[in-house]
Amino acid sequence: MIGSVFNALLVHEYLERVRDRWIILISILFAALGAGVSLYSQNLEGMDSVQIAGPSLVTLATLFVPLVALILGHDAIVGERERNTLSLLLSLPISRTGLVVAKMLGRTAALCTSIIVGLGGAMILTAADGRGQILALMVPTILLGIAFLSMGVAISAIARRVTVAVNVAVALWFIFVFFFDLGLLELMVITEGAVSKELIHYLVLSNPAGLYRLEMLTYYNADIFTDEMGISVVMPSQTIRLLIWSLWAVVPLAIASWVMQKRQSFR
Question: What is the average per-residue pLDDT within 51-72?
Fold first, then answer.
């Protein structure tokens, strides 16, 4: 019985999210921009189209995927609360942790659908010999999305109102995608280089958006531009990178589960 409730909730979450008009709109926009990048790169003579399209798609994914993920996650719990359906869900034979996990998995499936649509637009218009390199974006991009989706679910469990969750989600998007790296650059300027480059490097890698950018730009050999500027990019081992991704996926979700366990009333 418990398993059937979990599975039904997971499927319900997926079907509801893939019909969300904002998710559909952003996915279509992502696909259209990705297709445009592929077409543009193929019209550049004497240049490897994938080496142009790859880094451009990384930039697009860094902007769109965290936004889609936070939109998907921000109302997972607090939305049910405002609709007065959370108490009903909790009355079903499913634990509070199971409820959080089912919502996370259902929305993760919807996120994967959105990413496949977005990158699929680029792959369709990419030459056959370059589709494998575009396909290599798929798994890291999904990991990026899961990290931000987990943050969104944590926000949803903590927030008391959907409007608060929306504001926090947008703030986190700006912080992690735009202001984090700018803040580190300003820190280096203010301290006149007193902060070691190694520390700055590790701080960049601690940000899922920064880790994704460095990981994929290194894959596409786009780090030659940073080398020319005198900036050395040394990626940690695959084990360390997987550990970072795992922490971003699990820790916010654990926080959401803990909040659900501790909160007595959901009115």
Answer: 84
Distance CA 74, CA 60 (A): 21
- Is residue 48 a part of any domain in this protein? yes
3-state secondary structure 81-145: HHCCCHHHHHCCCCCHHHHHHHHHHHHHHHHHHHHHHHHHHHHHCCCHHHHHHHHCCHHHHHHHH
Handedness of CA 186, 188, 189, 191 (dihedral sign): positive
Residue for token pair 């499913």: 94
Nearest-angstrom CA–CA distance, 22 and 30: 12
Number of domains in the chain: 1
Alpha helices in the chain (DSSP H): 2-18, 21-42, 49-73, 78-82, 86-90, 96-124, 131-135, 138-158, 162-174, 180-190, 197-206, 208-219, 224-228, 238-262
Please check whether residue 267 lies inside any domain of the structure. no
Output the pTM of the full model.
Answer: 0.89
* Eight-class DSSP state of 265: -
Q: Which of 138, 161, 139, 158 is nearest to 150 (CA)?
A: 158
* CB atoms closer than 10 angstroms to residue 79: 16
What is the extent of the structural domain holding 50?
2-262
Confirm whether 115 is domain-assigned: yes
pLDDT in tens, 21-35: 888 888 888 888 877
Residue type (1 letter), 246 = S
| Exposure of 218 in the CB half-sphere (CA atoms within 13 A) | 15
Judge contact between 159 and 165, C-beta under 8 A. yes
In a domain, residue 179? The reply is yes
